[in-house]
């Protein structure tokens, strides 16, 4: 439950709520992990059913996605429908959407000052993730972390592009990275100030320049990092481990890229971060440095309710920091 644990440990819970968006809400709610979370954190965590007819109502996608006469563009990887759901949720509620395969490192609310999409990378074939998409080396923009206000004009234009273009192929990025890039170029061509692009290092630090890239979360800690020995032996000043822990406060999230089948190495830097989160959440629940009901591993979803802003998520893995209408 690393995503939920990080949300509880890093977000201001007085006005933050994690909403899990899913196409199987009843099943998710029956999960023992989720039931425990909802009983302890019901004011901050909610599971909500994706209702395509309701989400598309009043948009150019009404009748195209789901419902009566809708084509129901759902694919095995939840790419096409997941890309549509995140935009529709932001249209209806506004907020910061974050995919569930991320571990937050700090409060997301300052990012809500701007409407933005995160940058994917600009390395091309030198990207450490090129092997995942060798046929398409450049993915300029990524919706894994994004913010748009309710009824944003940017989203209105995005829906127009989606509705007036050929339907996407299953398991494609047509309504994801490609759509964001088309929208961004269209705005620039029309001399309209586009949405902001969040540099990838702030949301995907593993994908930074090799000299400052975060270590692989699923491999043993490196012998050195940032030009320093990891354990600090023979060094003057901070160790590589201490430098990395300091840098965690300079980024917003650690992106795991859907590597659900892998485990974090025991005693590694990710487990150290999660241990600090467990202690903090344990204190929030009244425990004396306990885990707050979190087991050493796992991971789940998000959105907000009665406060000013929220955080959301979709079943196959998304999360959003949302705002109530009229509150920025």
TrEMBL record:
Region (Disordered): 287-328
One GO process term, biological-process aspect: glycosphingolipid biosynthetic process
Signal peptide start-end: none
Pfam families: Gly_transf_sug
One GO molecular-function entry: hexosyltransferase activity
Residue spans of biased composition, Gly residues class: 287-296
GO CC annotations on file: membrane
Ranges annotated as biased composition (Acidic residues): 313-328
Family as reported in the entry's similarity comment: Belongs to the glycosyltransferase 32 family.
PANTHER family, per database record: ALPHA1,4-GALACTOSYLTRANSFERASE 1-RELATED, LACTOSYLCERAMIDE 4-ALPHA-GALACTOSYLTRANSFERASE ALPHA- 1,4-GALACTOSYLTRANSFERASE
Protein name: Glycosyltransferase family 32 protein
Organism the protein comes from: Dioszegia hungarica
């Amino acid at each position: 439950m690393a995503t939920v644990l990080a949300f509880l440990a890093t977000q201001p819970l007085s006005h933050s709520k994690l909403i899990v968006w899913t196409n199987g809400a009843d099943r998710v709610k029956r999960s023992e992990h989720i039931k425990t979370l909802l009983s302890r954190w019901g004011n901050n965590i909610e599971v909500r059913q994706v209702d395509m007819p309701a989400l598309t109502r009043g948009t150019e996608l009404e009748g195209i996605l789901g419902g009566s006469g809708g084509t129901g563009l759902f694919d095995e990887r939840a790419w096409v429908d997941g890309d549509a759901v995140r935009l529709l949720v932001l249209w209806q509620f506004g907020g910061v959407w974050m995919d569930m395969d991320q571990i937050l490192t700090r409060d997301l609310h300052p990012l809500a000052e701007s409407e933005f999409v995160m940058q994917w990378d600009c390395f091309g074939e030198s990207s450490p993730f090129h092997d995942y998409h060798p046929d398409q080396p450049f993915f300029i923009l990524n919706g894994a972390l994004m913010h748009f206000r309710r009824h944003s004009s940017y989203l209105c234009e995005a829906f127009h592009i989606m509705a007036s273009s050929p339907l996407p192929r299953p398991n494609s990025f047509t309504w994801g990275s490609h759509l964001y890039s088309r929208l961004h170029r269209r705005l620039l061509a029309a001399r309209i100030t586009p949405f902001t692009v969040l540099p990838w290092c702030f949301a995907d630090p593993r994908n930074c320049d090799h000299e400052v890239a975060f270590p692989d979360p699923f491999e043993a800690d490196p012998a050195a990092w940032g030009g320093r020995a990891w354990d600090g032996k023979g060094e003057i000043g901070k160790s590589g481990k201490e430098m990395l822990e300091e840098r965690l406060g300079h980024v917003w999230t650690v992106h795991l890229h859907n590597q659900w089948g892998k485990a974090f190495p025991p005693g590694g830097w990710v487990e150290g971060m999660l241990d600090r989160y467990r202690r903090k959440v344990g204190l929030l629940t009244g425990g004396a440095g306990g885990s707050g009901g979190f087991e050493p591993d796992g991971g789940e979803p998000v959105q907000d309710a009665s406060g000013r802003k929220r955080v959301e998520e979709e079943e196959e893995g998304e999360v959003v920091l949302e705002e109530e209408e009229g509150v920025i």
